[in-house]
Design the sequence.
């Protein structure tokens, strides 16, 4: 995918959280110790995590919660059996975004996760009546970016989200909205997704002007592979 014309350079060229993390890991790997590092054990998110404050790093979902969110999206879209979640992004505030793939692909722009563990529809979405024909994607490329809004239902927050495909060599994706901290995307099954809260006085509703942002994709060595720029 060819990058678009660069937008304002203020803040969009800062070093992102993910790249800092990659640099730290690489420096650590170059140390003198030859001991094998212990694997990092990531604890799946609790309901308190998922309904707590928003954070720029996504949560890992346990199979029960993931299935509940997937079923919530399928029910919200009245989707026939057979499709499954390509990517689920959950990072607090009781919000999950879902991109479905399969015989009837679709997208739930925002689902609400309650403190009781229920998953209900909140924002808009779409569902196709048949399989989609996805364009061929290079191993180091980002696919077309779907821009969405996070708002509606009983959500206590409004925000913006992006979803798209990621080539096989892309292991991390960072979204850098203008005047907002960098957001580390969820990357799974050849897709990525991320959402972030709207600023005060910046309603995120259908038809609202989408804020500028940059999406940057990196391989396992932290090398930039592709990027996408949203114009102001």
Sequence:
């Amino acid at each position: 995918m060819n990058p678009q014309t660069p937008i304002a350079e203020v803040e969009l060229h800062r070093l992102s959280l993910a790249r800092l993390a990659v640099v730290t890991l690489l420096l650590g790997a170059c140390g003198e110790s030859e001991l094998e590092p212990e694997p990092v054990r990531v604890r799946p998110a609790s309901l308190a995590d998922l309904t707590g404050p928003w954070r720029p790093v996504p949560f890992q979902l346990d199979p029960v919660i993931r299935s509940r969110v997937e079923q919530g999206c399928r029910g919200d879209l009245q989707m026939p059996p057979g499709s499954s979640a390509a990517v689920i992004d959950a990072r607090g505030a009781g919000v999950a975004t879902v991109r479905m793939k399969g015989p009837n692909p679709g997208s739930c722009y925002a689902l609400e996760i309650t403190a009781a563990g229920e998953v209900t529809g909140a924002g808009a979405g779409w569902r196709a009546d048949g399989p989609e024909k996805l364009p061929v994607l290079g191993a180091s490329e980002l696919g077309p970016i779907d821009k969405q809004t996070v708002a509606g239902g009983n959500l206590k927050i409004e925000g913006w989200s992006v979803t798209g495909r990621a080539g096989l060599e892309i292991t991390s994706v960072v979204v850098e909205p203008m005047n907002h901290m960098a957001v580390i995307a969820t990357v799974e099954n050849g897709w990525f997704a991320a959402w972030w809260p709207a600023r005060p006085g910046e309603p995120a509703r259908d038809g609202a002007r989408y804020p500028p942002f940059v999406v940057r994709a990196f391989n396992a060595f932290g090398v930039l592979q592709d990027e996408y720029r949203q114009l102001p």
